Amino acid sequence: MKGMNIITGKELDGVAHLRQSIADILTTPLGARVMRRDYGSLAFELVDRAANATGEMLLKAVCADALAKWEPRLRLTRIALSGVTSDGRITIDIEGDYLENGHRLPPHHLTFEGLVL
Q1: CA-CA to 47 of 20 to 30 Å: which in 25, 28, 35, 87?
Q2: Residue-range domains of the chain with CATH
Q3: Comparing 41 with 105, which gets the higher pLDDT?
Q4: Which region among 17-21, 65-69, 96-100 has the lowest average model confidence (pLDDT)?
C-alpha cells in the first residue's frame, strides 16, 4: 500500500507507511474524523487514569482493538508500555507480522518501538 508522508508530502510505502498508519490510528480520538466517526482509538479516553496494572491493560486493549479494526497489514502479537516521556505522554512498543492480502511479507516480524500516545 502506498500513501503520503504526513510531514514531507512525499510518497510513502511498505513498513514506513505501516508505521505512520499505526501512529495515526492510535493518536486519533474516536469521533474526530468527519464521515468516519468510528476511526481511531479510545486511548484518549484513558488520559488521567491511574498508572496501574488495570490502566495498562485497558490501554493495551484499546490499542489492540483499534489496530485490529483499522490496520489489516498488521497481525498484532505484542503491545508493551515502554515508558513515559518527560511531558507525561506514554510510549508503547508494538510487535506483529507484516501482511499483504493476508500473506506474511518480509520483514516477517516487525517491532515499532517508542510510539508516543
Answers
A1: 35
A2: 2-116 (3.10.450.40)
A3: 41
A4: 96-100
* Phi, psi torsion values for 30, nearest 5 degrees: -55, 140
Q: What is the pTM of this model?
A: 0.85
Hey, how many other C-beta atoms are within 10 angstroms of the C-beta on 23? 16
Find where cell 480520538 sits. Answer: 29
b/e map 60-86, b = 16+ CB within 10 Å: bebbeebbeebbebbbeeebebeeeee
Q: 100-111 pLDDT, tens per residue?
A: 877 777 666 677
Q: Could you tell me whether strands 11-13 and 2-4 are parallel, antiparallel, or unpaired per DSSP bridges? A: antiparallel
Distance of alpha carbon 89 from alpha carbon 11, whole angstroms: 29
CB atoms within 10 A of CB 15: 15
